[in-house]
From TrEMBL:
Coiled coil: none annotated. It comes from the Eukaryota. This is t-SNARE coiled-coil homology domain-containing protein. The chain crosses the membrane at residues 112-130. It comes from Entomoneis paludosa.
Length: 134
């Protein structure tokens, strides 16, 4: 016995022909979009708007991160320059203190007394200037 051949459904899993699907030419009620197709179109346009907004935000964030990176590089170079300046000042102070120590050792107590008197006068003058400016 031979078995009867089955008819193909043209790739549609519900067995309907492509023209019988909602919105097809065989649909009753005339042309136009079904509510499902209209909703899909609205959702698609909303998704496109959201994608555009996100791409704008990503572009702004990219620009912001580039600006932050440039600012960090500039601040690092400024800090490096300040560090070099402070180390130079530290070297100058240590050299000056070394010379003062050498001078005090070689000259005696009379010069030490002059040095201490000078420092006390300078400190008192600065204190008086600061207190009188208030």
């Amino acid at each position: 016995m031979s078995t009867p051949m089955r008819q193909r459904n043209n790739g549609n899993m519900y067995g309907r022909r492509n023209n019988d699907i909602e919105g097809g030419p065989n649909r009753r009620g005339g042309g136009g979009l079904s509510s499902g197709e209209a909703n899909a179109g609205i959702l698609e346009s909303q998704n496109n708007e959201y994608i555009d907004e996100l791409s704008d935000q990503v572009a702004r964030l990219k620009g912001l991160t580039i600006d932050i990176g440039n600012e960090v590089k500039e601040q690092n170079s400024l800090l490096d320059g300040m560090g070099d300046g402070f180390s130079n000042v530290g070297d100058m102070l240590s050299n000056s203190l070394g010379r003062i120590g050498t001078m005090l050792e070689s000259t005696g107590t009379k010069h030490m007394l002059y040095m201490v008197t000078f420092c006390v006068v300078v400190i008192c003058t600065l204190w008086w200037l600061m207190s009188s400016s208030k």
